[in-house]
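Sample intake sheet
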Amino acid sequence: MKIISLYCKLTLLAFLFAFSGARAQTNDVYVTSVTFPGNYVVGDYVEFLKTTPSNAGASGHYEVSISYTRGNIAAAATFLVSVSHANPDVWREAGRINKGGYTESTVESFAIDVNSQYGNVRFRVRAMATWGVAADITVHIKVRSVNFTDSWIPLSAKGNTAAPAGLMPMTNEWNLFVGNPYSAASAKVAIAANINGDVGIGTRTPQSKLAVAGTITAQRIKVTATGWPDYVFHKDYQLPSLQEVGNYIQKNGHLPEMPAAAIVEKEGQDVGEMNKALLKKVEELTLYLLEENQQRKKLEAEMSALRDKQRVLEQQLQALQQK
């Protein structure tokens, strides 16, 4: 019995040791801080961490939070970083998912950069402003591995650089599915963003910067456009005659410079271009009306002159009849 009891204790200890070791290897959170001197300048940086994402670097998904205070400022931010297998050796700025600037979002002094080089993933904190009094400033940093990470290696490399050449991807794609988990029905696609930066509402396959599979309700929509057709009112504009317009309609079944119904049904319609085309037709119609008004006034003047002549002739005829 003593031998069995001892065996059980050893087994339990081995299990606890293995379990604690497994937990230690996950390395979910890394906390540190770096201090910049009071005379630091924009572009100064400190490389503070090297990490090893698991599974040949494919599992690199990190949240990096920073906070700092100096004199009359206090700010914080959280960044999201996505690292995958065999990434390039280049520094890029991480994207923010939370921003707590002092009094307003623009009052912040530091950003997080990432070099996602395969086998040498590194993080650095970089100064992009020097808010506050001229005193040393400590940046508190917490890195959370959302996926799996094999190790954290502290660094302390310092230097100065211009802003990174690009932005670090936060994800390959992003989706928001909504629905009632109680129901067996498939969830609905609320929002989807693809690798090209296209956003879909109600669709997972946007083909433009914003694709909406459904009805849009808005109080106001602003469309910017160039080439607004005020040139129609220039003196050198060649206004087509109504006869020419009529001939075109007779031949094509729609107004000149306007798309045919079949094309709109197949390819859709650019709202900005359509507004320009409609305005041009309104301006041309205005010119036709002005021209018609001038002709009408001319005819009225001629009719008035004819009536005056007729009145004189009638008076002369009446005088002759009285003799």
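Comment: Helices lie at 2-26, 242-252, 261-267, 271-322. Residues 271-322 form the longest helix (52 residues).
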